[in-house]
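To close the chapter, one final illustration. This time we ask the reader to focus less on the individual chains and more on the assembly as a whole: which components sit near each other, and how the overall shape emerges from the parts.
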Amino acid sequence: MEFILVGQPNCGKSTIFNEVAGYKSVASNFPGITVKYTKSHIELENQKISVIDIPGTYSLQTSDEAELAATKYILNAPEDAVIINILDASVLSRSLELTLQLMELQKPMVVALNMIDEADRKGIKIDSEKLSKIIGAPVIKTNGRKGKGIYQLFKQAYFAGKKKIKPSIIKGPANIEIFSESLSKIMKEKGIPERWNYRFMTLKLLEKDDSIIIFLDDYFKKKDWEFINKSVKKIEKIPQRNSEFIISSIRHNMAFHIFENVAKVERSIKKDVRDKLDNLFMHPFLGYIFLISILYLTFWLIFTIGGICEPLFLNNFEKLSKLLSIKFADTPFLLSFLRGFVQGIGGGVGIVIPFLLPFFIMLSLLEDTGYLARVAYLIDNLMHKIGLHGMSVVPIILGYGCTVPGILATRILKSPRDKFITATLTTMVPCSARMTIIFGLVGFFISIKAAILIYIINIIILGFTGKLMSKAMPQVSPGLILEIPKYHLPGIKALLNKTWFRLKEFVYIAWPLLIIGSIILELIEHLNLTNSINSFLSPFTSGILGLPAVVGVTLIFGIMRKELALILLFSALKTKEVLTVMTPAQIYSFTIFATFYIPCIATIAALARELNWKKAGLITGLTFSIAVILAVLVRFIFPIFI
Amino acid sequence: MGKKLTSYKDGDRVKIMRINAGHGALVNLINLGLNIGNIVEIGRKSNMKGPVIVSYQGTEVAIGYGLATKIIAEIA
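The assembled structure is written out below.
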């Protein structure tokens, strides 16, 4: 047997899933973050049951990847699948619109009235028995965050699956039902699988759902489409409205009607403290002050924690590396290999624990409380100036921690164009590894102000690049449509799950590449290729960028691991007193170049995965060109000011 | 008949008359319950061409300024 969890974004679905499944799914207070579905197993009545958590979806009408994934999964679910529809009881009427669509599928289902505590607080009293009678499926009140009612929910789901109880069919206007009946006959003749309920498919056709149209095109001939088009026109004729509006209005009214029947609002919705919070956080002026303060505080906290922890880890790995040098002194090749391996592991530990972990915890906190949606709201018109909208802010902020999860987060964007531009900008944001170069070189040898200036230059360049790219790709972005969720106190379990989920993307994608990169680098050194690489690159490094030729290899190393550019610069220059061999202008130009140039290999892999290799190549070329232009500009302008 | 959603004040209760948006945005709006004929309350309109917030039945939705100009509504 299989349980499929379906619900609208912010309904607490992932929290319920986490409750039963452990560390696998991510709860999210930012619509549409879980695009891929997650599977887990539970044991119930001595049976192993699969539980599938599919992306939160407002309806089965597909307008983005998340909704398409959800609809596809449910349509093709196995015979014995049970739909567990989770509703946010505090917005019952809207939630029922999805329930009505799920009922159309005529598969066994149960309904969870989740966040029942929130509904209580709003004074909404729901008669679950009455609701159960109307929809023809068990209805259970649950409170996911406290784990209340969840066992009962799954037990009822099990019985619904055993008995194969189908939900009621709530009929619409006669003309639509007649159309559905005649079309169902045609569908049966054409051999369309019955598990894609014919009435459901008819309604989808009326909703002009592209994916369903493509789907049915394999079965239907021209004659059938003509019949469908004629019938749709007839249905549209009297209300003088497009059929998709007709269907959604019917459903909307039906949902509201059911809501009025089963729920009583005992007192008018009282504004609570959380509404007042938005008077500050979403205020046209104060909102931005809070935004800057919150982001500043977040970054300050991360850098402080990171700064304290980093040396602790790195020192130990340095000791280990020295120990290896003594132990394996007789076998230099093996030694290089092992040293590369240890450095790769150490580099990962040195980034993950001091910087990424606190960064992701803070970000998950901002997300789960609901603040991130406010950030998207506040920043929306700023992002419009560069042709994007508020949703793009999430990948970009993530990019300050590690570019890889930032790139993967571009999934939440609906249009490929927005995704491409956002991914490009995210790649250019200085991640925590690049931060160590900026503060380790410019911050240490020139001044902290000069280091912060790099961040400011970076933001300006991001703005320009975004503007140019959106000019080059003038398609209209669909614009921001974002539910502003209520503020929630985040659950610790969900928070940790999400942090781990993001960290996993670094651990599984970036870290192995980091280790391989480190091994290759050690081998390059072992084989004495350093000098040949330096002299090969010198026309570029010395000629164009005006840097000492020895930095050549450090830049190659930097592609493997950005922060290596700094560590290796010291060893390439054979001193930590960089100022004795490089001028401040050279340091600044090197740092700017290292910040922007080719993304690290893990980022390139992530770009190829989320976009494609061609776009990954384009982004690499673009960032490299920007890096060269900026570095040359710094080379000639910097000496004028100093 | 009817005015753009962006031309209303905070606290106005309006009925959505027409949505002149593309299919993608339209589906998104309908999914969130912003269908023709629905009544919503305008809240927190930011003054610098930022998103318009509409609320109804306990749900708050932010709509980008550009898209909000394509939604035609009248006072309910």
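Strands of chain A lie at 2-7, 38-44, 47-53, 81-88, 109-114, 124-126, 139-141, 263-265, 481-483. Chain A touches chain B through 42 residues (CB under 8 Å). With these observations in hand, you are ready for the problems at the end of the chapter.
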